[in-house]
Design goal:
The chain is built from 14 helices and 19 strands. The protein is α/β, with parallel strands linked by helices.
């Protein structure tokens, strides 16, 4: 995992460092200079323009300028406060005007078309917490950031302006970070290998979903669970795949039937295509109140519970809202600081909250956050959330803890989408791609 810290948290990390500020600036400037040479492909005859502000961000840029000049690069340093509308020509522009603590609007000077841009810590003008930007931001080809990622580099439009993000260790201790970006190696470590004595009931998932006209949601959930390793997907819809054990449930009062047989299942997914009437809410409440099996609450079950969800949720529950469903749970939309929003709701509900979006934010009741950036706009189509719910349910059934199961499910789901077509991907396409992603993750750890 790569740590993520807010500008305020980064300032505290800087202050706690035993080294003097000048030493840290030298390390940062050295990292910027090395990356600049890499982007330039050498130093002979190269020209670099450094746009430098008055703070430490600007000092990092000035230190890099001195190092580049010492290596024979032609360097021009431009003061950000008095910069012309268009920067002097160069092979590379180093954007060190404003750092992660910047607030307000900033109109960056223009650069000649085709000029490479290297941003220091964050593209100037991008909000370090939210990724929002007002004015004209100089889009970077590469952003070098120190010690930890900043949220503004992950959330749009900041992520679009940042280009390729290169975290660099300059000796700062970021172990206090309460948020992190999930990597494939993390997912590989969370998913247990099947042993030789396993059987299908060790990873059984009960899918409570689907009503007349909404059978497709139940099929996608159950199929997603299958493709993520559920041993016995059980479903309440007649349109289930042939491998799924179909159990008809009454429209009302089904919670009692489920709870009578819950001991055979390792996880439950509830809500997809289930409807939102008062009877649904009553049954979902009875279910959550009657079991401590990991339960993924999605779609209609979220809407049915609404503001009352906290009465029956607990650490075994994973809620997976999009922005509209988040508002039904919290009473207001998540707002620009999505990490704080997910964290606050998880603490309020005492449950795991997966806030869908680009990227996805997963928060635990204790305030820890995992961010997943594998998904993109290809997943913005009907039914993909149903597949995600099934994947999370399967991972939970395989023994992954609720918090990690939610994050791993989002990672696999996004990675599967990234293997699909850029246009025309539908939810059903993900089902054939999920085993490919899982194989690639497991193969990465296999001995060669």
């Amino acid at each position: 995992m790569i740590p993520i810290v807010t500008p305020t948290e980064m300032a505290a990390i800087d202050q706690a460092a035993p080294e003097p500020v000048g030493e840290l600036i030298g390390r940062a400037g050295g990292a910027v200079a090395r990356l600049a040479v890499e982007m330039l492909g050498g130093t002979y005859g190269r020209r670099v323009v450094v746009l430098a502000g008055k703070g430490n961000n600007g000092n990092d840029g000035r230190d890099a300028a001195r190092r580049l000049a010492a290596r024979g690069v032609q360097v021009v340093v431009v003061d950000a406060a008095t910069a012309p509308a268009t920067l002097p020509p160069g092979d590379l522009v180093i954007d060190a005007a404003y750092g992660t603590g910047f607030r307000g609007a900033y109109d960056a000077p223009r650069v000649a078309p085709g000029t490479a841009v290297l941003a220091v810590d964050i593209p100037s003008g991008v909000d370090g917490v939210t990724g929002r930007a007002e004015g004209r931001v100089l889009a970077a080809d590469v952003t070098v950031t120190f010690a930890a990622l900043k949220p503004g580099l992950l959330f749009h439009p900041g992520a679009d302006f940042a280009g390729a993000v290169r975290p660099v260790d300059i000796g700062l201790d970021a172990s206090s970070a309460r948020a992190a970006l999930v990597e494939a190696s993390d997912v590989r470590g969370w998913i247990p290998h099947r042993d030789a004595t396993t059987h299908k009931w060790r990873s059984a998932v009960w899918v409570i979903a689907g009503t007349p006209g909404m059978d497709g949601a139940a099929v996608l959930v159950a199929s997603g669970a299958q493709r993520a390793g559920a041993g016995v997907p059980g479903g309440a819809s007649a349109a289930m795949p042939i491998e799924v054990v179909h159990t008809p449930l009454p429209a009302h009062g089904w919670a009692a039937t489920v709870l009578e047989q819950i001991d055979r299942f390792a996880a439950v997914v509830v809500g997809n295509g289930l409807g939102t009437g008062p009877d649904v809410a009553d049954d979902v409440r009875r279910l959550l109140d009657g079991t401590r099996v990991t339960t993924v609450v999605d779609a209609d079950a979220i809407t049915a519970l609404g503001r009352s969800a906290g009465e029956v949720t607990g650490p075994h529950v994973v809620l997976t809202p999009h922005d509209g469903e988040f508002a039904r749970l919290a009473g207001q939309p998540p707002g620009p600081d999505r990490i704080a929003a997910a964290r606050d709701l998880a603490a309020h509900l005492g449950a795991v909250v997966l806030l869908k979006g680009g990227p996805t934010v997963v928060a635990s009741p204790a305030g820890h956050v995992l961010v997943v950036a594998t998904g993109d706009a290809r997943l913005a189509t009907a039914g993909t959330g149903d597949v995600l719910a099934g994947v999370i349910g399967a991972l939970a059934a395989r023994g992954v803890a609720p918090f990690e199961a939610a994050a791993a499910g989002a990672f696999l789901h996004g990675a599967a989408g990234a293997l699909g077509w850029r246009d025309g991907l539908v939810a059903g396409d993900l089902l054939g791609l999920l085993p490919v992603v899982l194989d690639r993750i497991h193969e990465a750890s296999a001995p060669h």
